[in-house]
Amino acid sequence: MTLRVRKATSEDEASxxxxxxxxxxxxxxxxxxHDFSELPGLVYAVPYVKFPTTWGFVLEDESTRDVVGYILGxxxxxxxxxxxxxxxxxxxxxxxxVEKAVKPADIYYANLLRNMHTAPDSNIAFSPAxxxxxxxxxxxxxxxxxxxxxxxxxxxxxQGLQGVWVGLDPRNxxxxxxxxxxxxxxxxxxxxxNQMGLRFADFKLSSGLES
Length: 211
Prior knowledge:
The chain is α+β, with helices and mostly antiparallel strands. It has one domain (3-206): 3-Layer(aba) Sandwich (Aminopeptidase), CATH 3.40.630.30. Helices cover 39% and strands 19% of the residues. The chain has helices at residues 13-23, 39-44, 77-87, 89-95, 104-114, 121-126, 144-158, 173-181, 200-206, and strands spanning 3-7, 54-61, 66-74, 130-135, 163-167, 185-186, 195-199. The strands form two sheets. Strands 1-2-3-4 form a four-stranded antiparallel sheet, sandwiched between helices. A three-stranded antiparallel sheet has the order 5-7-6. Helix 4 crosses helix 5. The model is unreliable at 205-211 (pLDDT under 50). It comes from Hebeloma cylindrosporum. GO terms for molecular function: acyltransferase activity, transferring groups other than amino-acyl groups; beta-N-acetylglucosaminidase activity. It holds the Pfam family Acetyltransf_1. Residues 3-210 form the N-acetyltransferase domain.
């Protein structure tokens, strides 16, 4: 198995949406939870290969050319939130009316499109940049998550940033442990215990940057 990391493009939309769905239920597949299976990806993945202030890299299996993981984010979370509030959520809210949703997960997302959560001020004070990372189960626990974080850190440093943060699903202890190993820590002043941030100086000191 030979994998490589490359920049994400708009041509990866379907692949990253699929990966998002297959990891959306606290790290496992959410397929059975949805009639509208595209909703997790439309919220948490696809916008990051379409809009200003965003960035992304994908993990590709070179033998099949399949995208099997991604790391996506924004270098300016508040600007990103404003842009998608104007140019993305309204059209999706019209396309997915709450009254057409039956399954609880679809109802949740349909309501979310009408009242999208925004980052706590504590997170923005820590860093304007945030990320999402997901890898298909068959490719996990092989060091590729760390590799994707390394690539993202190197990119964000070139953008003049000193840190990045991530929001966690409180049920996903595996993700929490992964971030802790990479020197992510709870963000001071965050309204819950599910916001973690990485100072790049700590990452270089404790984990190193891969070439």
